[in-house]
């Protein structure tokens, strides 16, 4: 580097001499410098070439990040003064441009491609420093990038050039020519913009003093609404949202940094900004759940009507979720919950719409730390089955539990919101001259009445309230919607308590369950065991008191009494039938099967097989429906693809019991495209054994195409003898598996044979659809035998083995009590009827059913009512079959 110092020394050395002598020396120095200009440039290029020859062999892999300091020459270059580094940077641009003319493939492994990689590494390092580059050098650099066919950070120093723009803006050196150059540069590197490119683009906007546009693209319902709203907004409002949404573009990390959140607070502009934010979010975020309004040019898979959220919009929504966490309130908590549910919603052959947005919503609710946020986390905990979502919720709840100083396992029970209800399932609110009264009528629905001051009531919303009290009405109806979401979620949680070995002190149970305004809607329709001084008495809520099955009040002491959920296992038939009769007498509809719950005991066949059960083997299940049921019941399962891969069995971890249960399944079929979806996922799975293992026993897996389960490593673990599994655990696990088969079996689909099946498949369909009754079907038969005599069509109905017989005006019919499939007598000709959900619901309303949730029971009743009046059927498809 002495050559450059010598030239500078000659110029500097003229000071202090006589003017004439100094002028003469200066002229000589300038002349020499002009001549040396070419020499300097040649020397730069020579030194760069030396660096390339030295550094290229040190690059282990063309994808690795290379440090120029690994080369001795590179380290020297990074140690000279900034003026010389600016000259080196300009020379490097020239060298790389020359390379580009000769490099056939920037992504290749030849020496020229590798040299370009180490040259770019040095240029990136130099541009990471503040260099005195002149305008022409900068414009040359910009033109170089713009000429490239793919201006990516892998090929060009994009972030370094953005840094130069920011320095120019800070020093007020940004000229018109530079602004024009940076605009072309911005267009070039955002041609195929990812998250990093979008963030850099916003920095360019700020540097050149341009008010950024909304970083939204039309095609999604929520972005369409935002773009429309901003087209009507004033300049201040539009600038506010351009800045805020622009900041959300940088939400590319798993969680926000303190710096990111602090910048948000500066953009929000106090209370006025927060109010504007919440109002817009209330309008936009619910629309995220709507289908796309248009596709995109970039991808043929992103079409109108799909649920795809573009990558750029996912980052923006993540940022908006984080900001919601800074604005705690009932409305923002509700918005985050709704957005989270929408984000985790599964799309066919894709999976969740946006895990990053869903996780951001959960994190934001945890950040809020309010009672409203806690309630929404409780809702998400029971509604979401995605493993990643559950992990994020557990993390948020654990953090909140630590903040509140309560045990994590109790926080879930404590966090159930009341939504303003004062009585059991009752919400009363004065709105104007009307009193709005909401009442929960089941574990899934509510009804609302609007009462005038004179006591007159109406079901429809009074027109006078829609405008004058719009906000109050909106809040009341939002609470109604929240209650209707939370009730079934909590019902599911209660149903899963059997395997959690839960026991409560009586006072705690009263507070969190029996007297809780929302939970009491469910809890007071269930049977509970009350234990005092070693004596256990089952009881249920009736007419403002706890009573036994004879209807007598139960005397309990708050001190020393404990409560558990009653189960029919180990109960005598008289006790179980007594409770069933009690529920029917008082028309108590249980939120799930309890008194009518199936009990599964070891069979002789299972005693013989000893360590496994074949009770639910050899079934053909719709894979995606089976997978959804697994998630709903707390099982871990992975969709099978027709690929060269191995899969663990469907597994339920029973941590409290130190066990795990496995249901062995395999993909069914060998023809790709016929037996699979476009994604390669099997349409169906074939079932095999149910087994139990110690919690920490070595796992097993099977190849996607079959071949049986083998140990993942080492010697196979021995399954537990079924007789050693706790009877309650065995019964509940077998009940889960029965549910999987009963709901997901192709034998339940009346139209399945229309798809053209082979002889073996048709044989299975007929065997399942009209064969023997499983435990749940036997329970269904027992219920129908008690209910049918009370129906108006009772004289047309009777029972024969596994069928409900219905005598219509035209034909007689046999309805199978397991599948709901129909045969026309006397030829036993199959009749295909697929009832609409509305018909099924109406059938359930016509008669008292002692529990909710058995759709097949409602389907059978709807078909019975339809066929009893077969002379009034108008559906052409059914009439053709009846000829």
UniProtKB/TrEMBL annotation:
This is Uncharacterized protein DUF4132. The lineage of its organism: Bacteria, Pseudomonadati, Verrucomicrobiota, Verrucomicrobiia, Verrucomicrobiales. InterPro entries: DUF4132 (IPR025406), DUF7737 (IPR056639). Residues 777-882 form the DUF7737 domain. Residues 455-635 form the DUF4132 domain. Pfam families: DUF4132, DUF7737.
């Amino acid at each position: 580097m002495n050559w450059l110092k010598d030239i500078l020394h000659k110029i500097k050395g003229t000071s202090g001499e006589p003017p004439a002598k100094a002028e003469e020396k200066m002229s000589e120095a300038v002349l020499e410098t002009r001549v040396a200009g070419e020499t300097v440039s040649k020397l730069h290029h020579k030194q760069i070439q030396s660096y390339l020859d030295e550094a290229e062999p040190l690059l282990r892999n063309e994808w690795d990040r290379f440090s120029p300091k690994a080369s001795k020459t590179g380290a020297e270059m990074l140690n000279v003064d900034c003026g010389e580094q600016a000259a080196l940077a300009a020379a490097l641009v020239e060298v790389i441009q020359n390379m580009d003319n000769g490099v056939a493939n920037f992504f290749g492994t030849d020496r020229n491609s590798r040299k370009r990689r180490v040259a770019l590494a040095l240029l990136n390092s130099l541009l990471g420093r503040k260099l005195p580059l002149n305008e022409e050098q900068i414009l040359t650099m910009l033109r170089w990038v713009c000429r490239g066919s793919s201006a990516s950070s892998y090929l060009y120093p994009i972030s370094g050039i953005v840094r130069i723009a920011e320095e120019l803006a800070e020093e007020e050196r940004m000229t018109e020519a530079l602004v024009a150059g940076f605009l072309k540069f911005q267009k070039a590197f955002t041609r195929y913009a990812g998250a990093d490119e979008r963030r850099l683009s916003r920095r360019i906007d700020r540097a050149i003093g341009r008010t950024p546009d909304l970083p939204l693209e039309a095609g999604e319902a929520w972005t369409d609404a935002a773009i429309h709203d901003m087209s009507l907004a004033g300049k201040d409002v539009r600038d506010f949202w351009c800045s805020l949404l622009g900041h959300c573009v940088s939400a590319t990390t798993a969680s926000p940094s303190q710096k990111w959140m602090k910048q948000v607070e500066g953009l929000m502009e106090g209370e006025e900004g927060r109010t504007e934010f919440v109002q817009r979010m209330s309008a936009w975020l619910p629309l995220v759940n709507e289908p796309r309004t248009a596709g995109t040019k970039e991808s043929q898979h992103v079409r109108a009507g799909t649920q795809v959220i573009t990558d750029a919009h996912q980052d923006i929504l993540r940022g908006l979720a984080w900001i919601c966490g800074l604005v705690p309130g009932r409305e923002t908590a509700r918005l985050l919950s709704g957005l989270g549910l929408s984000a985790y919603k599964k799309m066919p052959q894709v999976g969740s719409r946006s895990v990053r947005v869903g996780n951001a919503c959960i994190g934001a609710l945890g950040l809020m730390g309010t009672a409203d946020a806690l309630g929404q986390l409780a809702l998400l905990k029971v509604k979401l089955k995605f493993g990643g979502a559950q992990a994020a919720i557990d993390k948020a709840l654990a953090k909140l539990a630590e903040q509140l100083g309560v045990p994590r396992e109790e926080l879930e029970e404590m966090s159930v919101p009341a939504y303003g209800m004062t009585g059991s399932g009752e919400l009363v609110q004065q709105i104007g001259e009307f009193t709005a009264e909401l009442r929960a009528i089941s574990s899934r629905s509510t009804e609302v009445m609007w009462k005038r001051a004179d006591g007159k009531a109406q079901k429809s919303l009074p027109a006078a309230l829609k405008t004058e009290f719009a906000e109050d009405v909106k809040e009341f109806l939002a609470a109604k919607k929240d209650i209707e979401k939370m009730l079934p979620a909590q019902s599911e949680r209660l149903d899963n308590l059997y395997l959690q070995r839960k026991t409560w002190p009586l006072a705690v149970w009263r507070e969190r369950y029996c007297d809780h305004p929302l939970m009491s809607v469910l809890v007071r329709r269930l049977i509970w065991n009350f234990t005092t001084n070693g004596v256990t008495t089952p009881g249920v809520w009736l007419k403002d008191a706890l009573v036994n099955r004879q209807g007598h009040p139960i005397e309990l002491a708050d001190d020393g009494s404990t409560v558990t959920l009653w189960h029919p296992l180990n109960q005598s038939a008289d006790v179980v039938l007594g409770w069933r009769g009690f529920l029917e007498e008082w028309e108590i509809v249980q939120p799930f099967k309890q008194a009518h719950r199936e009990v599964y005991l070891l069979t002789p066949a299972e005693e013989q097989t000893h360590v496994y059960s074949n009770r639910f083997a050899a079934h053909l299940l719709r894979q995606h429906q089976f997978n959804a049921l697994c998630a709903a019941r707390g099982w871990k399962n992975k969709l099978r693809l027709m690929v060269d891969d191995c899969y663990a069995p469907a597994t339920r971890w029973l941590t409290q019991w130190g066990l795990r249960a496995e249901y062995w399944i395999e993909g069914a079929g060998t023809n790709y495209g016929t037996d699979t979806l476009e994604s390669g996922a099997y349409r169906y799975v074939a079932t095999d054994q149910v087994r139990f293992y110690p919690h920490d026993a070595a796992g097993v897996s099977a190849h996607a195409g079959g071949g049986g389960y083998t140990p993942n490593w080492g010697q196979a673990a021995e399954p537990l003898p079924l007789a050693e599994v706790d009877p309650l655990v065995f019964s509940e696990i077998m009940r889960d598996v029965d549910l999987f088969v009963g709901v997901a079996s192709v034998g339940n689909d009346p139209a399945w044979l229309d798809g053209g099946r082979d002889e073996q498949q048709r044989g299975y369909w007929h065997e399942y659809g009209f064969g023997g009754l499983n435990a749940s079907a036997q329970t269904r038969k027992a219920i129908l035998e008690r209910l049918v005599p009370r129906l108006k069509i009772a004289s047309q109905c009777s029972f024969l083995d596994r069928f409900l017989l219905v005598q219509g005006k035209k034909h007689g019919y046999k309805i199978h009590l397991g599948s709901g499939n129909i045969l026309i007598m006397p030829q036993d000709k199959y009749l295909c009827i697929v009832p609409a959900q509305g018909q099924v619901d109406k059938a359930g309303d016509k008669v008292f059913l002692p529990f909710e949730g058995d759709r097949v029971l409602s389907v059978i009743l709807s078909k019975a009512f339809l066929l009893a009046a077969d002379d009034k059927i108008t559906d052409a498809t059914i009439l053709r079959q009846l000829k």
